[in-house]
Design a protein that fits this description.
alpha/beta, 12 strands, globular, 38% helix, binds NADP nicotinamide-adenine-dinucleotide phosphate, 6-stranded parallel beta sheet, two-stranded parallel ribbon, Rossmann fold
Length: 282
């Protein structure tokens, strides 16, 4: 089905992923309706109804994404990440609109060291993760046509993320302590956006994992960034348990992306390639 004949709505369209996605859509000839706070609060039923009205497809990038903040703002996290997503599903079901909803590796507990496949049992260990899992479940329960795309370790130009935080810390501190027991795949929001644009063509239904190819620890990722930018800073490995943070984080965030890869026209790039491009553009 030709996507340019239908109105594409991006919720959370000015966030880190949403803004890259809006650009990627425009580059492919789509003119998406880009909605975000304050004009479109997805917890507001009227706003949501207006967003859905006339839409051909909806991509939900809106989320409460403050992982530590969710431990003290659980009610807000659930309203945005769970209840609103369920309501979006009900509206989409009535209007027969396909929804692509973005989710996270935080729905897993991160125990073990195997890459997660889509059929693995979720078991979130943080309020953020639990709220996102409930969002996935409420969307599925709504009966709307939908696709859930779980992503992990994302970075992009429009937001705070591991890369931008590391660079800020590198400027302020001579030594960076970075955990070497969290393993996953750095994933550029530009790459996620490209994959989403491909999914828009056929609008598949179901659950998909997407991440940069290859696995690395946070420590190794930090070393890569420091080396690429020739920063004069020492990177020292440490453990997650060395830090006190309000929310627990999964140690194993590896995704098996075989399922989505079969739908994409190009192989997913090794994580180093988009990260190098991103660092060059800074
Ligand atoms: N960042 C990561 O490492 C990561 C990893 C895995 C999965 N994800 C998922 O990726 C998706 C996109 O997140 P992101 O990284 O682009 O984070 P982001 O930059 O925080 O984007 C989320 C957007 O949603 C907006 N928003 C928050 N509450 C809203 C509400 N009630 N109504 C409408 N919009 C609202 C935010 O606005 P404000 O900025 O004004 O709050 C922001 O523009 C989310 O589903 C997230 O769970 C992210």
């Amino acid at each position: 089905m030709a996507t340019h004949t239908t109105k594409t709505v991006i919720l959370g369209g000015r966030g880190m992923l949403g803004s890259d996605l809006a650009r990627a859509c425009r580059q492919r000839g789509l003119e998406p309706a880009v909605l975000d706070l304050p004009e479109c609060d997805i917890t507001n039923s009227e706003h949501l109804q207006q967003a859905v009205s006339g839409a051909g497809l909806i991509i939900n990038c809106a989320a409460y994404t403050n992982v530590d903040g969710a431990e003290s703002e659980a009610e807000l996290a659930y309203r945005v990440n769970a209840e609103a997503v369920g309501r979006l599903g009900t509206l989409a079901q009535h209007a027969d609109i396909w929804v692509l909803h973005v989710s996270t590796d935080f729905i897993f507990d991160g125990r073990g060291d195997k890459p997660y496949v889509e059929t693995d049992r979720p078991n979130p260990i943080s309020t953020y993760g639990r709220s996102k899992l409930e969002g996935e479940q409420l969307l599925a329960d709504s009966g709307c046509r939908h696709c859930i795309l779980r992503v992990e370790w994302t970075y992009g130009a429009a937001g705070e993320n591991f890369v931008t935080k590391l660079m800020r810390r590198a400027k302020a501190e001579g030594t960076l302590r970075v955990v070497d027991d969290q393993v996953g795949s750095p994933t550029a929001t530009i790459e996620v956006s490209g994959a989403i644009c491909e999914l828009l063509k056929n609008r598949p239904e179901g659950l998909f994992h997407f991440a940069g190819a290859g696995y690395v620890s946070r420590y190794e990722m930090a070393r890569f960034i420091v080396d690429q930018l020739s920063l004069d800073v020492e990177v020292v490995p440490c453990k997650t348990s060395d830090f006190q943070s309000p929310a627990a984080r999964p140690l194993n965030s590896r995704f098996d992306c075989g399922k989505i890869q079969r739908l994409l026209s190009e192989p997913i790039e090794a994580w180093q390639v988009p990260l190098e491009r991103f660092l060059r553009q800074l």
